[in-house]
Design goal:
single chain; 22 strands; 4-stranded antiparallel sheet; Neuraminidase; 1 helix
C-alpha cells in the first residue's frame, strides 16, 4: 500500500469504519447483458494472535471453504470457512499459521525481502507467493520450508519498492500471471508478466484508469482473468472495483467492470479469489489488509455474479 501521512490515514480509516456501518451505497451500473455483481456479505475475521493481520491475498483450495492467505509481514496462514445453508460465512478458523515465509536457504526473510503480497495455490497444494519489496515470485512446496525462487527478470528490478508485485494468479494449466501495483506514470499501462515453460514473458498490458491500482487477481472457473483494483480517497477511505478480462494466447480483451464501491464501504480490499458455489454462480471473495491498525479490520467480503 502507498505510504500516506499518518494523521490522514488514521482519520480516514476512523471515518471509513463509521461509514461501513451505514446502508450499502449503489454500485456502478452494469450494461444490459453483462455480468453484475450482487453484494452478499462482509464478515469480520478476528484472531487474538499478535501476528494476525496484514492479509494481502487469498486463494481457495476447494469450493469456497478451505483457503490460504499471506500476511505482508512474511507469514502464511491456512484456514477454513464455515457456511450456513444459504452459503453465508458463519465462522472463519485458522487451521495453521502463522507460519514464517523463508528464503531459499531456509532463513527468515528481512523487511525489504519479505513484503509478501500475492498468493496462488497450485493443484498439488504448494503455493506461489509474489513479493513487493524485492520484486520476485517464489514457490513453497511446503509451508515453513525453504523457498524455490523462480527466475527474476531484469525488469522486476526496476519496479518501485512500494509498488511492485501485488497480484498473482494461476491459470488452469499452471501458468502464472503477475503485475506491478504501479505503472510509473498515470498514463502508462500496467505490464502483465506471464510465467510458463520455465520463463517469464510480458505479452500484454492493462490500461491504467485514473487512480485505480491493481492489488489482487485470480482466474475464475470460467477461465476468465479477474482483477481487483483499489483507490484511496484519504478521509473517506478506500474504493474497490473488480474487472474481468478474456485472455487468448498473447492477447487480452477489453475489461468489463463487474463492481465498483464508493469510498468507505469496505476496508482495504487487497486479495481476490473467484470460485463457483453450489448453485452454480460465480462468487468473488475478497480479503482486506488491516495494516495492523486498530482503526481497520480484517474483512472477508463476498459478491455473486448474476446476469
Amino acid at each position: 500500500m502507498s505510504k500516506r501521512p499518518l494523521r490522514a490515514v488514521i482519520a480516514g480509516l476512523a471515518l471509513a469504519a463509521v461509514l461501513a456501518t451505514l446502508p450499502l451505497w449503489p454500485l456502478a451500473p452494469a450494461q444490459a447483458g453483462q455480468d453484475r455483481a450482487e453484494f452478499l456479505q462482509a464478515f469480520v475475521w478476528r484472531n487474538p494472535d499478535p501476528a494476525f493481520g496484514g492479509f494481502s491475498a487469498i486463494d481457495f483450495a476447494d469450493d469456497g471453504t478451505s483457503f490460504v492467505t499471506v500476511s505482508d509481514r512474511t507469514t502464511i496462514w491456512r484456514g477454513r470457512l464455515t457456511r450456513d445453508a444459504a452459503g453465508r460465512i458463519v465462522t472463519a478458523t485458522a487451521t495453521s499459521g502463522p507460519v514464517p515465509l523463508l528464503d531459499s536457504k531456509g532463513k527468515a526473510l528481512g523487511r525489504f525481502s519479505g513484503d509478501s503480497e500475492g498468493v496462488a495455490l497450485a493443484p498439488d497444494g504448494s503455493v506461489f507467493v509474489s513479493f513487493e519489496g524485492m520484486a520476485r515470485v517464489v514457490r513453497y512446496p511446503q509451508d515453513g520450508g525453504p523457498a524455490k525462487p523462480l527466475p527474476r527478470p531484469a525488469a522486476f528490478k526496476q519496479f518501485p519498492l512500494n509498488g511492485a508485485l501485488e497480484s498473482l494468479a494461476i491459470a488452469a494449466d499452471g501458468t502464472l500471471y503477475t503485475m506491478p501495483e504501479r505503472s510509473g506514470d498515470r498514463s502508462a499501462p500496467f505490464p502483465v508478466w506471464r510465467f510458463r515453460n520455465g520463463q517469464w514473458t510480458q505479452p500484454f498490458a492493462i490500461p491504467r484508469d485514473d487512480d485505480w491500482l491493481p492489488v489482487g487477481a485470480d482466474f475464475g472457473p470460467d477461465g476468465r482473468f479477474y482483477l481487483l483494483e483499489r483507490d484511496f480517497w484519504g478521509l473517506l477511505g478506500f474504493r474497490s472495483r473488480v474487472l474481468v478480462f478474456e485472455i487468448t494466447g498473447d492477447r487480452i480483451g477489453p475489461g468489463t467492470e463487474l463492481l465498483r464501491t464508493t469510498a468507505g464501504l469496505h476496508d482495504n480490499l487487497e486479495g481476490l479469489a473467484v470460485w463457483r458455489d453450489a448453485q452454480g454462480a460465480i462468487r468473488l471473495t475478497m480479503i482486506a489488509d488491516d495494516n495492523f491498525n486498530a482503526f481497520q479490520r480484517t474483512e472477508i467480503v463476498e459478491y455473486r455474479l448474476n446476469r
